Amino acid sequence: MRIVLLGAPGAGKGTQCKRISVRYGLLHLSSGDILRQERAAGTELGKKARGYMDSGGLVPDEVIVEMMAEAIKKASQKTGLVLDGFPRTVNQAVKLDESLTGNGQRIDVVLNLNIEQEVVSERMTGRRSCPKCGAVYHIKNLKPKVEGKCDNDGAELVQRPDDSLDVVKNRFRAYHEQTKPVVDYYKNNNTVYDIDANRVVDEVSTLVFAILDTLIEVRSDRRQ
């Protein structure tokens, strides 16, 4: 099964992708992680992306699509995968479909995490990170044992610049301008399931698993 998870920043895509990956034995492919890996490895694709990343610009669609298409191609068809942070634009979605079709594959289901801006703002502005180990906390929902200190190494927790209120608002606005049309693109293929991501994490997972369990059961019945 090949799954795309869509949603605004702070909707919980990374968390849900990890849970889906573990529950169904799928490969979790994060566009951000792959970009960083390609860059660190000094591959041709990584070199192409580096200039844009260093200047703070957006990596062009053709570079992202080529990178993700290669990662998807390497993935076992038996294992399946869940895509996190990709595609972000309609052009990327079109190019992804073209690439998959060329390999006799397709996107099976798109899970769209719907969330209100107020909820996103509370989640993201309340996050605190450890500059040493990268652990993430929240001032309300995931407090450290000692206020302001990392449980792992005692380092002073910080708020990342991209978790400030102004940045969060801008990222949410950019999502609706650029990525939300991707949902409409996939809805033309009847593959989109809308999920209320305003709920707590475990409740969102329950909704996600219910959809995927049903789809897997249907596919199993069709094979019999």
Short précis:
The protein is α/β, with parallel strands linked by helices and 224 residues long. It is 52% helix and 14% strand. The mean pLDDT is 87.
**Which CATH class applies here?**
Alpha Beta
CA-CA gap between termini: 17 Å
Name the helicity range: 40-55%
Total number of strands: 7
Strand order of the largest sheet: 2-3-1-4-7
Which series of helices and strands comes N to C? Answer: EHEHHHEHEHEEHEH
* CATH superfamily descriptor: P-loop containing nucleotide triphosphate hydrolases
SSE class: alpha/beta
Morphology call? globular
Strand content: 5-15%
Q: Just name the CATH architecture.
A: 3-Layer(aba) Sandwich
CATH structural fold name: Rossmann fold
Radius of gyration: 18 Å
Tell me about the biggest sheet?
Answer: 5 strands, parallel
Describe the structure.
The longest helix is centred in the last third of the chain and has 23 residues, at 165-187. The chain has helices at 13-24, 31-41, 44-55, 61-74, 90-102, 117-125, 165-187, 201-223; strands spanning 2-7, 27-30, 81-84, 109-114, 127-129, 136-138, 192-196. The protein has a single domain, classed as P-loop containing nucleotide triphosphate hydrolases (Rossmann fold, 3-Layer(aba) Sandwich). The model has no long low-confidence stretch (mean pLDDT 87). The chain is built from eight helices and seven strands. It has 224 residues and is an alpha/beta fold.
